[in-house]
Amino acid sequence: MACELFQSALHGYLDGELDASRASEFERHLQSCPECVSALETQESLRGLLKQSALREIAPASLRTRIRAALPATESPAARRKHMGLRWIAVAAAVILVFFLSWRAFVPPDQYMAAGIGIDQVLDAHLRSLQPGHLTDVASTDQHTVKPWFDGRLNFAPPVTDFAAQGFPLEGGRLDILNGQTVAALVYGRRKHSVNVFVWPTDQRDLSFRSGSTRGYAWIHWRKEGMEFCAISDVAPADLHELVELISH
């Protein structure tokens, strides 16, 4: 994390350890630092999940009795204490393993997609594309121009369709990078807003729509017929769902 305040202030802010002046300074900093906003959201989400998971378990009293009964009768008190300690270490290790696996189960599945691609990476790519001159590599409303443009540049053929008649005109396409993987980005317009639809191949089974929002941007992720899709924009979620329905049919 490049931001120095992330290391010096974020955890103190989360734990309520900053004085009023320092806390106000950090809150003002959040208004202009997407790195700290993302880190803060991640930490708050993790903290909330751990509080909700109710993973703490108390070993039953009968466990001590069973362990003692299993010890050889000829053991010396010192040896018995040693074996008891080893057994409790094994129990603690098992509890930690259960905690870790359960925590993984509680991580929202819609935050990550196949190939290790996360929603934050998709959002970062979307925001980069909104910089002047970055939205499209091929600017065209003609699907018969955009689709052939990807030939030879990708080892797969993304589905490209113009939905101008339904209120989502095709604006073009580009190549983008998500988690080190080259993907296709199809760009659609909606009332002066831009929608990025990222597409890449997958060997995972089909997946119905999963949606959410992050930092004020709505997103929808799905898989169909060997392709993985993630659409993202600041349009209304209902508009984004309408476009996704058109693409997936």
Please describe what this structure looks like:
The chain is α+β, with helices and mostly antiparallel strands. It folds into three domains: 4-53, no CATH class; 61-106; 109-248, Phosphorylase Kinase, domain 1. 45% of the residues lie in helices and 21% in strands. The chain has eight helices and seven strands; from the N terminus they run ααααααβαββββββα. The protein has helices at residues 4-14, 20-30, 34-53, 61-70, 77-106, 119-129, 143-150, 237-248; strands at residues 138-139, 170-178, 181-190, 193-201, 207-214, 217-224, 227-233. The chain has a seven-stranded antiparallel sheet, sandwiched between helices. A hairpin with a 2-residue loop joins strand 2 and strand 3 (181-190). The longest helix has 30 residues, at 77-106. Residues 103-111 have low confidence and may be disordered.
Could you name the key traits of this structure?
249 residues; alpha+beta; Phosphorylase Kinase, domain 1; 3 domains; seven-stranded antiparallel beta sheet; 8 helices; 7 strands
